[in-house]
Amino acid sequence: MLTTLSGRFLILTVLFVMLAEVLIFVPSIARFRQDYLAERMERAQIASLALLGAEGMIDDDVERELLDNAGVLNVVLRRDEMRQLVLSTDLPGPVARTVDLRDPSPLLLMRDAIARYFRPEAEVIRVIAEPARGGGMQIEAALDTADLRAAMLEYGLNILILSLVISVMTAVCLFLAVRRLMVLPIRALVAQMKRYAAAPEDARRVIEPRSRIRELREAETTLRDLETQLTGNLRQKERLAQLGRAVAKISHDLRNILTTATLLADRMERVDDPTVKRVAPKIVSSLTRAVNLTEGTLAFGRAEEAPPALQRIEAAQLFEEVCEAEALAAGDVPIRWEAAPGQWFRADPEQMFRVLSNLVRNARQAIQASGQGGEIEVSLTEDPEAWQIRVTDTGPGLPPRAQENLFQAFQGNARKGGTGLGLVIASELVRGHGGTLSLQETGPGGTVFRIHLPRELAERQ
């Protein structure tokens, strides 16, 4: 029961009703005690007036009966300036305290009532009150508290039973109301979510708001909008996935065709015809860009890269391999690397080679496209927390449009004919290492890309 909303609400309702009854109990028991004593004083006044009316012609047995009916031990009536003991019998003990009912304060009544309720010992008390209907100036009576406490206990038990009945009935009514108005609609909402989750692409399973309760209807409306959007996104992703598979197949075959065409174009450059010599390099350049586009598309179209196999890499060895591979196409663009002998870091050698190759190739192509010359440098620094690999060039810098969409596929290309896939792939590979690839600075003086590889994550694996 404690694990359900309605069960918790039921228990809390019972507890709160009982707490309210406890707060009501104290003034109630104080009022009961005051009424009990006031009633005994009225009876004592009637008994004393009966005795005075008989002018003392009442024997001891009748007097004792009057006292018993009044529930007191003696009666002192003050009329004019004199106090007169009207009725009397032997007291079982000395008077322990005096209770004044003429002008009691609420706090005093509640304090005395609680004290009497929890004091089991019987004692004799003297009660002072004003006579009813002008029957004198003051009336006093002594009484035994045993009957008073017994009546108070009975009254308290009745209040307890009544409180339990009220709390249970209230809790049951609220339980049924909460179950009807909240629990059942929430369960229906959860059941609908499960039905939708079984086939989210089916638009017929999108919830239709029907609740007349404003908050639940808002929840259903929000859920409907979310499910509608999700269904649309799933359909779009499915279409894109189908398109991606088709493009991957086409790109694969197209790359083979373009490779063959590139080889043929290379042979055309050997022809002595001036026109052919002038056109052939342009054809080769166009075919090369097309091959690069298909290769980039195929690489980006892979669903996911394999997890990196981290191992200790000699920085100098890896940097030298990357720089030598790019130097063949660099022409007059110097590519240098800097790493201390024996300096190392942890990464996947193959994936890090691809990352650095992409960065160095982009820098080399930017410098060559500017026609203003420049150089490239790959370096490694480290501290107790991370390794920092920087690829720095002195090229023209990245244009604003490329900076805005730097790591977005097909949008962050900085040169004509590029796809922008190189940086996207490199960034995904670095994230697989638990690191980040970021543009540290760019401008007319050059560009710096930084690879941040945390030591802690690398040492855990």
Provide key terms for this protein.
Heat Shock Protein 90, 5-stranded mixed sheet, alpha+beta, 461 residues
How would you describe what is shown here?
- The chain is an alpha+beta fold.
- It has three domains: 5-171, no CATH class; 214-300; 311-460, 2-Layer Sandwich (Heat Shock Protein 90), CATH 3.30.565.
- The chain is built from eleven helices and twelve strands.
- Strand 4 (124-129) and strand 5 (138-144) form a beta hairpin.
- The chain is rod-shaped, with a radius of gyration of 49 Å.
- The mean pLDDT is 81.
Task: Give the SSE layout.
Elements: H1 5-53, H2 60-70, E1 74-79, E2 82-88, E3 95-100, H3 106-117, E4 124-129, E5 138-144, H4 145-198, H5 214-268, H6 274-300, E6 311-314, H7 315-330, E7 335-338, E8 344-347, H8 349-370, E9 376-382, E10 386-393, H9 400-404, H10 421-432, E11 436-443, E12 446-454, H11 455-460
Parallel strand pairs: 3-4, 7-9
Antiparallel strand pairs: 1-2, 1-5, 4-5, 6-8, 9-10, 10-12, 11-12
Subcellular location: Membrane
GO molecular function: kinase activity
Pfam family, one: HisKA
